Amino acid sequence: MLRTTNTLIALLACFVGLLAVPPDATGLTIYSNANDGFLEVRDILPPAGDWPQVHPDTFGTYNASVGEWFGPGLTAIVLPFQIPNLGAVADPFTDANLGVMVHEIGTGPTTTDVDLYAVRRDPNPAIITDDYYNGSAPDPTPGVVLIQESFLTPSSPAGFVGAPNNFTDTTGDSSLLNYLNDAYDGGAGAGDYVFLRLSYGADDFATVYDAYKITMREAGQQGEWPVLTLGTVAIPGDTDGNGLVEYPQDFDPILDNWRETNDTFGTTLARTDGDLNVDGVVNISDFREWKDAYLGLGGSPELVLQAFFSLGVPEPTAALLGAMGLAGMIGAGRRRN
User: Where does the signal sequence lie (predicted)?
Assistant: First the structure.
């Protein structure tokens, strides 16, 4: 029986023998964790405890400040983001961008920029006092990476616009991409958190209101939250984007949308809809990509055949088998089992 099955798999490979199409990249949107908040240092005797102090929640209901806001004192904002699980792959991210909504810039003579850092990776999303830094770039702390100097400036866009209005530039994107791929560490970092920090570029404890107010996770609308937008390497055969190639999870979208096109589907088909090569139709080439990846990872040939015939593809005719020189092989396989 095994030989018969393997012969049928060989037949199937020929029957769907189309040119392989490199998989497209996919995108992920990741919002800051609910532990986002700020760290505060005051240039006065604290009423209790030591400085810096951690504020994992925001003042009011939606915002935190970076810079001087409670004179004389300074604050830095820390944003934890959870690393997605894309499987045991190296450098899964193809591009990266951070966006935040600045809704107010201080009314004082604001002349100091805000720098963006990547501080650490940790399985715990909680902010700690060691995350604090305000001062000239770069932060000399070992392991801390300067992502973008002058990420925010006094001339940065500001206002309640319902979405991020400030983003990393091309230099920041590149630095962020490198950091995130390193943090992913071939899959060892999946599920952990990376901590990004907005630091005031001076430590002079200005006595005027010289701060940038940032909308945080507590905001009522998700679209206003700090957000990482990531491009990821699409794993061949992986329709659900979890980094694994499985049956039936990754086959079901192909089956459900078999022979759908962009027109019949009513919108542009995506990999998650079974259109693995993103050519606007779910067909045998998408099945082949899933089949090749699934078998390449040790998947069951019997399940592949079961999946193939569930698509309703007519069984190959004797003439077709003969033309491919496989009819005799299948017959021999059947006689021996």
Answer: 1-25
3-state secondary structure at position 53: strand
Element at 194 (helix H, strand E): strand 193-200
The reply to whether the predicted model has a pTM over 0.85 is no
Residuewise pLDDT in 10s, the chain (337 residues): 554 555 454 445 444 443 333 334 456 889 999 889 888 887 665 554 566 877 765 555 578 888 886 667 788 999 999 998 777 778 989 999 999 999 999 866 667 899 999 999 999 999 999 999 999 999 999 999 999 999 999 999 999 888 999 999 999 999 999 999 999 999 899 889 999 999 999 877 666 778 899 999 887 788 899 999 999 877 889 988 777 899 999 999 999 999 999 889 988 888 888 998 888 899 999 999 999 999 988 999 999 999 999 998 765 554 443 433 333 333 433 444 4
Here the tokens at position 118 are: 């990547």
User: At CA 315, angle to CA 314 and CA 317, rounded to 5?
Assistant: 110
Helix axes 2-15, 301-310, angle to 10 degrees: 50
Q: Which residue has the tokens 């902010």?
A: 127
List alpha helices for 84-169, DSSP H: none
CB atoms within 10 A of CB 172: 20
